[in-house]
Specification:
Blueprint (H helix, E strand, L loop, with lengths): L2 H15 L1 H7 L37 H21 L25 H7 L3 H12 L2 H8 L2 H12 L6 E5 L5 E5 L3 H10 L2 H11 L7 H6 L1 H16 L7 H12 L4 H21 L2 H16 L4 H22 L4
Antiparallel strand pairs: 1-2
Length: 323
């Protein structure tokens, strides 16, 4: 069997395993008025759907702004690690396109034309992680020096942790010290406040998305999307069902041909999402359900957005550039 097609099936077998989770975590990539999702509760819009800025705006960061913040954080980690006597490389940052995609349905035609469902981006990320120079360097260190490196980067367990309570129950912890913690403190202004706000704001979808997906308006929109797909020669009831079919459609094909099939299906999915009521309905329902179900978390959501905007302003100064 051809290696390219095998790689694609591996990528999508992983995606299929996450379908149920993704459906409950991000209804649609455009639900927040955007076209791609990032890890966490909310997608990152290419153009933010609210006005405002670091002075007190209430909006999400664009994907390009998110990358700038990540770059600044990595530069702060590098500075801290070098002070501790270790080299640190910052060449594994994602691009804005890397942060998009995902979600219950693909609704960005341009992204789909460039990346399909993102199988090549997934492989690139896997290769980047495998070849990361920081990990390679750490593995070359003697045991005692390796422990010192780990403590410098991630903090020593004996120096304590920060704890955040999740909206769905349970708690999560993160080291209180180390260069990663120091970088977040400098970038966001208050590491503890950021950690708690971020863990709340990015773990809210399970509080409303399951009910949203049962809403008759949503199910009718999915049916309209399905009819559009069927008319285009793809008989699938839901977006996850379409993606689950992809390995079968690409079986035995070389990677370039398999990728062309992936792109074709993803583009059709996106066109049907935008030419029917699907994307528009999902966006409206997301706003409606969040306003109804997440009122008690409005303070944490506002804090999360403001801390991100504050970090964006600092990131510009740290990197000397703009998004």
């Amino acid at each position: 069997m051809n290696g390219g097609s095998t790689d694609m099936r591996r990528a999508f077998s992983s995606a299929r395993a996450r379908v149920t989770i993704v459906a409950a975590a991000t209804v649609i990539a455009v639900a927040a008025g955007c076209t791609g999702a990032v890890p966490g509760d909310r997608p990152a819009p290419e153009r933010s759907h609210r006005s405002g800025g670091p002075e007190g705006g209430d909006r999400e960061l664009t994907a390009a702004e998110d990358v700038l913040v990540r770059r600044a954080e990595q530069l702060l980690v590098k500075e801290c690690m070098e002070k501790a006597g270790f080299p640190y490389w910052t060449d594994t940052l994602p691009t804005p396109d890397d942060l998009k995609g995902g979600g219950y349905v693909q609704a960005d035609i341009g992204w789909a034309e460039r990346h399909g469902y993102g199988s090549r981006l997934q492989r690139k990320a896997q290769n980047t992680q495998r070849d990361d120079r920081n990990g390679t360097y750490a593995r070359t260190l003697p045991r005692k020096e390796g422990i010192r490196y780990s403590d410098a980067l991630m903090g020593a367990p004996s120096q304590g942790t920060l704890t955040a309570r999740l909206p769905v129950g349970g708690t999560v912890e993160t080291p209180r010290t180390g260069c990663r913690a120091t970088a977040k403190g400098r970038l966001y202004g208050d590491h503890a406040a950021w950690f708690r706000a971020e863990k709340t704001a990015t773990n809210l979808t399970s509080l409303y998305v399951p009910d949203l997906m049962k809403d008759p308006r949503f199910t009718r929109a999915v049916a309209a999307w399905s009819a559009c797909m069927r008319a285009a020669g793809h008989d699938h009831a839901t977006p996850p069902a379409a993606r689950e079919k992809l390995p079968e459609l690409t079986r035995g094909l070389k990677e370039p041909e398999a990728y062309a099939v992936e792109v074709g299906l993803a583009v059709t999915e996106a066109r049907c999402a935008t030419t029917t009521s699907f994307a528009r309905t999902a966006r409206a329902l997301d706003t409606e359900y969040r306003e109804k179900r997440l009122t008690r978390y409005s303070g944490e959501i506002a804090a999360y957005r403001q801390l991100r905007l504050d970090a964006l302003a600092r990131a510009g100064r740290i990197t000397g550039s703009t998004a």
